[in-house]
Structures are given as structure tokens and as C-alpha cells.
Amino acid sequence: xxxxxxxxxxxxLLLLASFGLWDAGQAQQESMSRAFELERRGNYAAxxxxxxxxLASRPGxxxxxxxxxxxxxxxxxxxxxxxxxxxxxxxxxxxxxIYAVALRAWSAAEEPDSMRAVAEQWARIAPxxxxxxxxxxxxxxxxxxxxxxxxxxxxxxxxxGRGDALAGEMAQLAVADSDFATALREWLPAVRRLPGYRVTxxxxxxxxxxxxxxxxxxxxxxxxxFTARRLxxxxxxxxxxxxSGIRTLEPALPSDRSKAIEALRGLLDQLRSQRSRxxxxxxxxxxxxxxxxxxxxxxARLRLExxxxxSAAGDRDAARRMxxxxxxxxxxxxxVSSGAAMTLIGVLIDEGKLxxxxxxxxxxxxxxxxEDFADLQRRIVLGWVRAGDLARADSxxxxxxxxxxxxxxxxxRLYRGDxxxxxxxxKAAGPFAGDRADATHRTMLLALLQPIEVDSLPQLGEAMLLxxxxxxxxxxxxxxxxxxxxPPEKGGAELRLLAGRLLAAxxxxxxxxxxxxxxxxxxxxxxxxxxxxxxAQLLLDRGRQNEAVAQLEHLILTYPESSLVPQARRTLxxxxxxxxxx
Amino acid sequence: xxxxxxxxxxxxxxxxxxxxxxxxxxxxxxxxxxMIPMDDAQAEHLKAYGVTYRLLERGGRAExxxxxxxxxxxxxxxxxxxxxxxxxxxxxxxxxxxxxxxxRGQIQQGNMDAVPLxxxxxxxxxxxxxxxxWDDAVTMALNYAGIxxxxxxxxxxxxxxxxxxxxxxxxxEDFTGQYSKFFLNYAGSAWLVDMVERNRAIARSLGYxxxxxxxxxxxxxxxxxxxxxxxxxxxxxxxxxxDLALAAxxxxxxxxxxxxxxxxxxxxxxxxxxxxxxxxNAQLELSPTVPVYSDIDGHQVNSPDRRQPLGSFTLFxxxxxxxxxATMLVQNHRQVIPDFYGLTTSFTRKTLKPxxxxxxxxxxxxxxxxxxxxxxxxxxxxxxxxDPEDPQHQIGxxxxxxxxxxxxxxYRLILNNVLFPAAKKKELKT
Lengths: 582, 430
Known about the structure:
The structure holds two protein chains of two kinds.
Chain A: H1 2-40, H2 44-57, H3 62-72, H4 82-91, H5 96-108, H6 112-125, H7 131-142, H8 146-160, H9 167-176, H10 180-193, H11 198-205, H12 213-221, H13 226-238, H14 242-249, H15 257-272, H16 277-292, H17 296-313, H18 316-323, H19 334-350, H20 354-363, H21 370-387, H22 390-397, H23 403-416, H24 419-429, H25 436-449, H26 458-468, H27 472-484, H28 492-505, H29 509-519, H30 527-541, H31 545-558, H32 565-576
Chain B: H1 3-8, E1 33-36, H2 45-57, E2 62-66, E3 72-76, H3 79-88, E4 93-95, H4 97-109, E5 113-117, E6 123-126, H5 137-145, E7 150-152, H6 154-158, E8 167-170, H7 190-205, H8 211-227, E9 231-235, H9 236-247, H10 256-259, H11 267-270, E10 312-315, H12 324-329, E11 336-338, E12 347-348, E13 357-361, E14 367-375, E15 378-383, H13 409-419
């Protein structure tokens, strides 16, 4: 019976103890939740107090210690964590999280000797681990103590006996010191060990000043592995030499297909943000290289993308090479073949092969959306306009009632010299056709044409067509001739202003100045202040500061109601050095 | 005009600008007066100060109508001023005599006053010879408003050239000679190397053993300039370091990198605060790596664990007829202004000498923003922060373009200080 009684008592005690433990566990959980909630609400002082309570009963609770650290930081009381840190280290001497908090706490308390002691203690329990030195260095850096951080990393490297230990950290320190040669030497082993570092390595090395870049590239040439080739290629792209970048990478690509594609995709990511011709060409080459390593259907899409990049870069031969067979390939997906057809037609238009482009467009009409078809057709029309074949352009537009077609028709009327017809169509197109630049250009044309009271001016049409064709010198000369026949207030001043702008852009500042002065006459309406502003800018560009200031002052005082006065004041401020030049 | 002359003129009051000054009238507006309103009707608050300043420069006179439409200016109408205002885009309102009489009546009855402005003060800005023009809020404000100034540096200050100027501005010079305490954290940066070399060279050329010793001599010369009647306006770290340098008479407050010897660990206790202009009982920062000088600055922007967030500061109201100086310094179209950081952003209340006048503070915060005081026959004004329109200014940030901030209330406070020495007024109470 005694045994039974003892067992019952034991069981009872055990049960009570279990409940007690359960209660304690639940209470602790609730305390943590309460502390966390206070922290979440931004009541950091109360949260810190709650975490302290938990740590009083469980000094080794890393979660509570981390919570206390978080709560003290926003109220600038990080050093006050030190008593809890000491207790936590004593209670749980093998928990790395506690050592990390301890390092940060002693850093905040500006006790470098204690930081070192904690790091050493941590290193003893985790030999071979970089973390103690990494955290020590990070804590020093948080105090902007680069010397302390370097000491931590150097000691770690010595103790660990590995030349590549903490290489990423050393590299970042070197970058902060603007020592890019050392940074490169450190980044290479760091990236070899942890390829994820590559993006940071490229981003930081890309900041190297222009004059030391060739030396860095030579340093990379001395390395033979793929990591170095890849770093070099990406840096060349970042430094504005994308063609060299792809030339560096291509021969070094590994035979493993997926690794090669991954490297090419990395390069493509760098190139996507650049819009220069070389960047587009390099994009085409990278896409072509990826396509060559990709199965059929996906490969066809990539070839199309490569063709589009080549086409945008103006390399029509490469675009054609990519498109060869793609446009007529019945096995290719519909979107790919129609995309290829559109790209090919675009290439033909750019090459001036408008008839062939027109035939191709007619043959693929069924595969294209109505919008894509109309867009390409208008590009062909514009091609005819530029070729001077206005009759054909006119007839091709006949069935198109879109605002884009109206805008194009307005231009064709203008090139024919039909001023009222051009104004009517350009007005009707309004701001809706094309992009903002197109809309602004149309507004500029309307401002040019509206003061003209003559119905037909074929010479003006010819001059504007020359401008469309890119012959701005002859266009300016034609505009000046037409302007001579018109009074300043009836379009003469506007045409001289435009001619002056074309000549100024072409570097003929003497002629431009003469035209601006001729346009800036009384009674010329809005053209006069615009011509004065253009003249002042020209004078400033020619270093004739005083004349520019006088011109701007004249503009502001003579045309106080002009919408150009704010711009004139700003230019005046810049001319006088009252505001920084932007 | 020095303050002693300024105080010597009594009873000028409202008669300063009688219609007899209308000799300047020309072909412009038919009305005899031009009002430059400084409330929200003004299109170019900052350039309005320039228009007024240039009138004084031409020998004309103006009146500053304190608290009338946020500190408007009343000018005799003349063609040159009208042209100047039109070019600057400054809003002017032509006024007839009868309207001006009405305004004067209003001013008599309210907390307002009309302060005659008589002479364009000669302005000097303390800056190294190669300082970029866009790294100092006052230089930017003066350039933008079109107010002429000359640059002076240590050679001029120690060569007794300050007496040639009515108004002196200091910005972010470190008068403790520690290169803004950037020496260790920005080691190797080209701009810092240049700054160190330049300062060492000038100290050597002037016969001082160290940069801190030479900078303290400069600080003392500046304090003497104020004592003799000069107007001093300081911003950013020049405020705090000027006073620290003045109080460090025989105390080593510079880190070893600056003068070869470590800072005196008891420096805080050994400072001679009676020699400082504005502050006392401050605790100095002992660490050479922490870019903070003392607890004078309330925000401690360069110390991540002590940095305080930015709030807004509020300008105080003063009695225009009793405290015209303080009233002039706070004329503004905004009473509450967003705060902005500087190496010294604000001034802790506990370190302010009791005799100073607080012009603006952050209500409820332990710091103030804008203070003023007298020293001998002159006055000083300290304004914390670096650039009122670039609250988080960092080294290398693009320059502030004031044409984008023509109504900046923070910059107006700077320009109030520039025109303040032009005022002629009866005995001042502040």
C-alpha cells in the first residue's frame, strides 16, 4: 500500500509539476507576444521593459535579447543592453546570436576592447567560422570605424588560415577607401567561393574612376578562369563598352549549356538598361548566342528578339540573318512568325525597299492584328513621304480614318504647300496621335502655319519636306526664302525663327543670329520673344555674356506677358551666375 | 553701418521716408510709392530683398514694414527700381500717398512698425578661396537675390580687414581646426586631402604651429569684430565651433590628428565659457572618430545612435515697436518651417547662455533653432542647419537651385539678416 500510495503521490506531483511547467511555458509565450506587440506599436520603451522582464527569468533567451536590441535602437539606448548581454553570455555561452548582439552592444557603447574580447570568445567556440570576425567588423563599421573593421577581418583571415576568408568584406572595405585594385583582388576569390557576390562585385567595381579602369581590366586578363572573364565582360558593359563585353564573354562560355545561358542572361540583364546602338547590337549578339543554345520553339522566339535588337541598332544584315526562314516558317508559333514578318517589313522600310515591304505586308495581312497592320502601313506611307512620293502616300492613306492617319495626312498637305488643309488635319489629330514628342511637333507645326494667310505655299512645302528628309541646311535656306515673301506678323518671323534654329543646331551661328534678329521684330507676335530667347541662348553659347544679358532683359521688359518670361528669367539667372547651371 | 552708429541714430522713425525722397522718380509708374508685398501675393520673396538692397546701394532709402503683410518693403517709386523688380519677377504694387498714409495708420495701431533702411551693408562671407559657390546657403541666397559680397578668409580676418565690412557670414568652417571631424572617416577623400593641405599651408604661412591654434586666432578676431560693432551671422557648424574655439582658451580641444597631441580629457570642465558668445556648460565629445563636437547640437546628425529626427521649428512673435531687431529677424510669410540638418542642426536649451534671445524653436523639444545676442557693440545671430531647402544635405549632393524655391521661408530668414544692418532705428530693447 505504501508503494501504491507513493506512486499516487508521485503521479500527483508529476501532474502538478507538468501543469506548472505548462503554465510557465504559456506565460513566457504570452510575455513574448506582449513585448512584440508593444514593439510593433512603436512603444519602444515599454517593449524594452517587457523584453527585460523575460530576460530576467530566462537570461539566455536569444529571441528576447534580439527583441530588446531592436526596441532600444530607435530610442538611442543601445548601450543599455549591456547587463542583459553579459547575463545572456553567461547563461548561453555557445549561442552565436547572443555573440552577435554582444558585439553590436559594445560597439554602441564604444568599447572596442570588449568587442575584441567577445569576438575572440566566439571564435574559440566556433573555430573555422568566419562569423565572429564578420560580425565584429560589421559592428565596427556601424561606428564608421573602418580601421577597426580592417583589424577584425585581417585577424580573422590569419586565424582561419585561408587567403580567401572574409574576402567579400575586405573588398567592400577597399571600395570604401576607393582602392579599387585591392577591391578587385578581393572580389575575385569571394565570387569564386560564393557566386552570389558577383552582382555586388560588379556594382561596386563599376564605380571605379575612369583612369584606373584599363588597369583593372588588365588585372582581370591575368586571371584565366571563367569568373574573371565574366566579371570583365560585365564591367565592360557597365563602363559603356558593350561590344567588348560580349567579345570577352563569348569565347569563354562553358560547354555546359545551362551555365552558359545563365552567364549570357546575366549579361543581357546589364544590357537591357542601355539604349545605345552598341548596346542594342550587343543585345542582339547575346540573344543570338542564347538562341543557339535553346530548343526550337523557344529558340525561334529568341531569334526574333535578336532580330528586333539588331534592327533597332540598324544592323539590317544581322536582322535578316536572324529572320531568315522565320517569317515563312509554318512550324514556328503564330506570334513568332507574325513578329518576324513585322520585323522583316520594318527592316525593308528602313532600307528604303518600300515596294517589297508593301508586298510582304499584303501577304501577311491575315496573320497580323488590324492595329499592327495599320501601324506598318503608316510606316510605309512615311517612307513614301520621305522618298518624295506624295501621291502614293496619299492614296495609301485613303482608307485609314485613324487620328494617326490624320496627323500623317496633315503633314502630306503641308509638303504639298496646302496650308489650310494641313492646319485642318493637324488640328483634327490634336494631341491624340503618336507619343508626346509627336504631339509637341504637331503643335509646333500649327504655331508655324497659323499666322500664314496665304492658302498655297509650295515652296514652304518643299522646305518642310527637305526637313523631313533630314536636309536641314537646304530646308533652312528654303524657309528663309519663303519668309522673305511674308510679313513678319503673317508667318515671316516664325519661319525665320525656325530657319535660325536649324542653322544654330547645324553650327552656323552667324546665319542663325542674323535670322533670330530678323525674327525678333516688333509686331511679330509670339515669334518675337521666342526669337529673342533663342538669340540670347545662342549668344550665351558663344560666350557673349553681356549681350545675352541685355537681350534677356529686353525680352523680359518688352514682353512681360509672354509665357517665355519665366524661362528668360531663369536663363538670366544662369547667365549672371545667380543659380547653378543645370 | 556698424551697430554703434546704428544705435546712435535716434528718432528717425516714420519720418525717414517723406515724399522729399521722391527725387528718384522717373518715367515708370505714376504712383509715388512702390510696395513690395511679402505675403503670399509675392511672386519672388527672395529676390525682393535684392531689389530693396540695390535701391539702398544706389543711395535710395526704403522702409521695412515689420509685421505688415509679413514684412513688406515700401520704396519710393522710380524707374530704375521698377525695371529692377520687373527683371527679377518681384511683385510690386504702386501706391498713392493716401494709401501710404492709411498703411501708416494701420501700423501705428497694431503690433507693427516701419523701420527706415538707409545704407546697403557691406557684406563679407568667410570662405576658403576655392570654395564652390553652391556649398553655402548664404552665398546661394546672396547670389540669387543679386546682393554683392566679398569673400574673406584667414589672411583677411587676421590681417584686420574685417573692419571694412558691416556684416560677416560664417557657414561650415570648423574653428576647432579638426576639419569638421571628417579626418578619420573620410581619410583619403580628395576633397578632405585638399582641405587639410590648404589649412595647414595657411596656418604655416601665418606663423601658427597648428591649424587649431590658427583657427582659434581667427575665432578671436571675429569675436573682436563683433565686439567693435560688427554684425555676425553664422550657420551650420560655424556656430558651435566658433564658440568652442573661443571658450577653449588654453584648453586642448583638438584631436591628435589635428595638432599632434590628444584632446584634454578634462576639456569640458576647463572651458572658459565667459569668452563664448552664445553657449556655456557644454560637454565636449572626446572621441576623435565621432563627427560630433559637443552636446550643443541637439540633433547630432553624424552619430547614428544619437541622431534625432527632423521636426519643424516655429518663429517667435516679438513686439515690433519694443523689439524691432528680433522682429526684423523673424519676418516671414510662414510661422512654422520644416527643419533641416547640418553638422550643427540646432542648439540645446541647456547650453544656451541666459542672456540670448531665442528667435525660433521646436516646441517641446530640448533644442532651439535660431538665436540672437549682443556682444560688445555688435550683434550675432546663429541659425542651425546647412541648407533650408536640402534637409538631408550630404557631401556631394547637387547644389540647390533657388529658382525652384523662390518662396523659401528658411532662406528668407537668412536674407532678413542681410538687410537688418541696413536699418536705422531708435534705441533697441533686445
